Amino acid sequence: MLYTVEVLDAGEYLVEAQVATPHTSAIRIEVDNVNVSGRIGVPSTEDWGAYIWIPTSTVNLTEGRHKVKFYFKEGNLNVKALRFTKPHGRRGNVARYP
Known about the structure:
Layout: E1 2-7, E2 11-20, E3 25-31, E4 34-35, E5 40-42, E6 52-61, E7 64-74, E8 78-85, E9 94-97
Antiparallel strand pairs: 1-7, 1-9, 2-6, 2-8, 3-4, 3-5, 3-7
C-alpha cells in the first residue's frame, strides 16, 4: 500500500498502524524508499474486525511530501488506518493524500 503524506511540521513522529487479523502476521513501513521499521510482528486479534493499534517506528520527517509504503511481510491482515503523532504529547501536522 502506498500513501503520499504532506508534513506541515517537521520533526520526529511515531508511526502506528490500526490492524486486525485472526492469525499472527508481520508488517514493514518504508518512508521515501527507506525501511524505517524493520520487521514488526502483529499478534492475532482473533477476528478480521477486531482492530488494534500497533506502534511501528519513530521517524524523523522533514517538511514537505513523503512516500509511505506499508508492506505485508507475513500472513494476511486488514488495515484500517495509519497514524502519525509526535511523541511526548507534542502535536504535529501531517495531512494524508490518497
